[in-house]
Write a sequence for this structure.
């Protein structure tokens, strides 16, 4: 969440003087920057980033990646399969001003855990200690769709860590 917020701030900084209307953007799926990164990570980060942009007052986000689904809804309306009261008016899609694209260029996720038997035997109980650490780096660009020029390019890195502790003694857990 913090990483997406930082990226949003970096996008807003280069905006021209506010004209009172939101910038129309589409978000392209983030690519993986190295073969060690699972493509599902890039997809998940694209979704988080898109949500953060959509929740801002600065951007109006258009779901270009979901055009097939939108087209299906339009076709249902045109075939008369939808109630006239809720009929979708088929029209033109709004044009974008910017396309946001990027890559996940670094990603790490490490977890560790240790269990210490209580009373000399693990069946009596155990104390457990664990930790998780993660780091991600996104390289993001905005492209002016009229000219094809890159309007903004930046990298943002985020890290997080968490520690946990628990105990179980003869069926009683903490």
């Amino acid at each position: 969440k913090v990483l997406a917020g930082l990226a949003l701030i970096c996008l807003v900084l280069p905006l021209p003087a506010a004209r009172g209307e939101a910038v129309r953007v589409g978000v392209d799926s983030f690519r993986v920057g190295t073969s060690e990164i699972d493509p599902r990570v890039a997809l998940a980060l694209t979704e988080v980033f898109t949500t953060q942009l959509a929740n801002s007052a600065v951007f109006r986000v258009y779901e270009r990646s979901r055009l097939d689904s939108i087209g299906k809804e339009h076709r249902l309306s045109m075939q008369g399969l939808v109630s006239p009261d809720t009929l979708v008016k088929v029209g033109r899609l709004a044009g974008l001003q910017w396309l946001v694209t990027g890559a996940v260029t670094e990603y790490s996720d490490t977890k560790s855990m240790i269990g210490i038997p209580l009373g000399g035997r693990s069946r009596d109980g155990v104390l457990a200690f664990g930790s998780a650490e993660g780091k991600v780096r996104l390289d993001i660009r905005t492209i002016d769709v009229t000219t094809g020029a890159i309007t903004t390019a930046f990298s943002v890195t985020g890290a997080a860590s968490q520690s946990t502790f628990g105990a179980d003694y003869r069926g009683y857990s903490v």
About this structure: The CA atoms of residues 29 and 65 lie 8 Å apart. The beta strands are 23-27, 31-32, 59-62, 98-117, 125-144, 150-169, 172-173. DSSP finds three helices and seven strands in the chain. The first strand starts at residue 23 and ends at 27.
